[in-house]
Design brief:
With about 150 residues, the protein is mainly beta. The chain contains 2 helices and 8 strands. It has a single domain, classed as 2,3-Dihydroxybiphenyl 1,2-Dioxygenase, domain 1 (Roll). It has an 8-stranded mixed sheet with strand order 2-3-4-1-5-8-7-6, covered by helices on one side. The relative contact order is 0.21.
């Protein structure tokens, strides 16, 4: 089963400008780094605003498989699951389009297994299972993590 919303994903046109702007709005920078994701390296930032994790990218991992590309703004929701294989199969069998096949990713936030879907109505979402639970301490909640040096 799906446990909870883990974060929202955003595509931005200028990562530096967006991080600075959202910082002025009240977001705290939790992490900023480069990561190899599905064969491509990209920079991202994790911010906390109003108790919600936001992952900001200039390009999103599934945009090459979506006709017309992906416009800047909210792009997807990420839900944490405990039983990745079972949830992946269940959602796929319900008729969701698989945008990104299951993959494992490791970064400063830990190791995760993930896959992206699009619902029949167009909602894009990711399921992910945390494989390295110790890394969650970095992202426990607002005001609990020390922002790392950039």
């Amino acid at each position: 089963m799906i446990k909870e919303l883990w974060n929202v994903g955003l595509k931005v046109t200028d990562l530096d400008r967006e991080v600075a702007f959202l910082g002025e709005v009240g977001a705290s920078l939790v992490l900023r780094e480069r990561v190899s994701l599905v064969g491509e390296e990209r920079e991202y930032a994790i911010l906390m605003l109003g108790g919600v994790r936001m992952l900001l990218f200039e390009t999103v991992v599934f945009e090459n498989v979506v006709s017309g590309g992906v416009r800047p703004g909210l792009t997807h929701a990420v839900y944490e699951v405990d039983e990745f294989d079972a949830e992946y199969a269940r959602i796929r069998d319900l008729g969701a389009e698989v945008l990104v096949e299951p993959a494992e990713i490791s970064a400063a936030f830990g190791t995760r297994r993930l896959a992206f879907f699009r619902s029949p109505g167009g909602f894009v979402f990711e399921i992910m299972q945390v494989l390295n639970a110790d890394a969650n301490k970095l992202l426990d909640g607002p005001g609990e993590a020390e922002p790392p040096e950039k």
